[in-house]
Amino acid sequence: MSTTLPAPAVALPPADAALPAAPTDRARTYLVKTLGCQMNVHDSEHMAGMLEEAGYVPAPAADAAAEDVDVIVINTCAVRENAADKLYGNLGRLAGQKRTRPGMQIAVGGCLAQKDRAVIVERAPWVDVVFGTHNLDVLPALLERARHNARAQVEIAESLQVFPSTLPTRRESVYAGWVSISVGCNNTCTFCIVPHLRGKERDRRPGEVLTEVEALVGQGAIEVTLLGQNVNSYGVEFGDRQAFAKLLRAAGAVPGLERLRFTSPHPAAFTDDVIEAMAATPTVMPQLHMPLQSGSDRVLRAMRRSYRSEKFLGILDRVRAAIPDAAITTDIIVGFPGETEEDFAETLRVVEASRFSSAFTFQYSLRPGTPAADLPDQLPKAVVQERYERLVALQERISWEENQAQVGRTVDVLVAEGEGRKDGATARLSGRAADNRLVHLSLPVGLPATDAPRPGDLVTVDVTHAAPHHLVADSALTGGSFAVRRTRAGDAWQRRATGAEEHAHGGAGGGCGTGAAAAGPVSLGLPSIGLPVR
């Protein structure tokens, strides 16, 4: 069921004879901005694909940076308390841009749009379109309707209308891609608003997933991440509780695929058949994101997390026994209502025992509409902040120790685009090792530009230095390992960068690109590993 809500007229720019007329003789440009997790990033790829299928073109890089575009789409997150602040901060800035650009349109989608609905156009009446998580497919039609009617269009579907993976897609990367295996979540964690906004879990059929993986590989990708709110419950809908392990083995066997990852599992449903599939499938990378949330069994019960700390630690032990080099990351919430100092001490104990390579740590964020919002004993901000700082200090020490243990190891790095913010200043490239650790690597002095690794190529280097959040591999400067393997993925990146890539839309992983244009979706915000809540 879809609900179209009444909305006020779009706030048009003030009359000014000096303003140029809205362009009518060229394709309209677009920019998609993403606030949130991988699920949102992948949804943004679908939004970009639909816009391009409707005749829009990605804004050139300079125009995208200046937000000087005809259509800007903000794909929102509702998980954290400051989600609304981020959205309205962006919208406030864009109000001025819209006043100087006739015909510009602003659309808001994603989880916060699903939650707040018409509130968005009440607070920001210059917004043209609001659409939810269940009806991504209506974006182009709503934009056209808003232009024709000169009124904001707010349309929210209460249940999934079209499975997102059947929609056209403009991939953010040509060498690595997301493949959604399910949408929604059947868990009832008391702190989480995601099930309310994305609905019950819906699983794709295995054949559809494998077809999309094969299509991505056919377009040049060598790394794929299987994506879902709770990937290891995959298959329950069609009656096969071992479906996820089978899917890992089958996807990992796709010819041409070199790296397979997944995110995120739930500890309560994580079974040994998945560990066996990970260990037995060479393309499944030695990396696992396993959300802890709290080390206190009492708090886990209050969170409705159906596992306890010893079960969690047992899973980690079995993973490391089968995959000794596995890097394990996690999510942790500090300051859940009623959390005592003893509860927090249990979290510190489990973190110390778990030896996470990194952790996404969050201060509990009260979300209206969740059961936890009505719990007594909401903790003072000062208490939560002090505990948070202690947890971060502990994890920083562990991350640094775990990364120091990598020094001297030889690793294969998949070179990425835009991973290292200081690469220009340091003359390094950046990418991910097999275990997903971020590696900054140096090139040999005098290496010809034509021989330099491209995004999507693999480089073998020795780790020479470590920091809590990254590794450094300067072995090319010290006589150590340095070898480049140019890949199909690098070729695909080069074709896109030079404008040689053909346009190809389709539900099974279609993508398109143009040489001078910026990539369609632009990610703005939350951590890039792990969905924020499970």
Walk me through what this model shows:
The chain has 534 residues and is α/β, with parallel strands linked by helices. The protein folds into three domains: 29-155, Methylthiotransferase, N-terminal domain (Rossmann fold); 164-405, tm_1862 like domain (pyruvate-formate lyase- activating enzyme), CATH 3.80.30; 409-498, Nucleic acid-binding proteins (OB fold (Dihydrolipoamide Acetyltransferase, E2P), Beta Barrel), CATH 2.40.50.140. The chain is built from 16 helices and 23 strands. The protein has helices at residues 38-53, 61-65, 83-99, 111-116, 119-123, 139-149, 194-198, 206-218, 243-252, 272-280, 297-303, 309-322, 341-354, 381-404, 423-426, 488-497; strands at residues 2-5, 29-34, 57-58, 71-76, 105-110, 129-131, 153-157, 176-180, 182-183, 202-203, 223-227, 259-263, 287-289, 327-334, 358-363, 410-415, 428-432, 438-442, 458-462, 465-467, 470-473, 482-485, 521-523. Strands 1, 2, 3, 4, 5, 6, 7 and 23 form an eight-stranded mixed β-sheet that branches. α3 links the parallel β4 and β5. The radius of gyration is 23 Å and the shape is globular. 49% of the residues are buried. Mean pLDDT is 87; it is low at 5-22 and 502-534.
Distance linking N and C termini = 26 Å
Count structural domains: 3
Helix content: 25-40%
Low-confidence stretches: 5-22, 502-534
Q: The CATH topology of the largest domain, please?
A: pyruvate-formate lyase- activating enzyme
The overall average pLDDT, rounded, is 87
Largest sheet: 8 strands, mixed
Q: Helix/strand-derived class?
A: alpha/beta
Based on CA atoms alone, the radius of gyration comes out at: 23 Å
As a percent range, the share of strand residues is: 15-25%
Level-2 CATH architecture of the largest domain: Alpha-Beta Horseshoe
> CATH top level of the largest domain?
Alpha Beta
**Total beta-strand segments:** 23
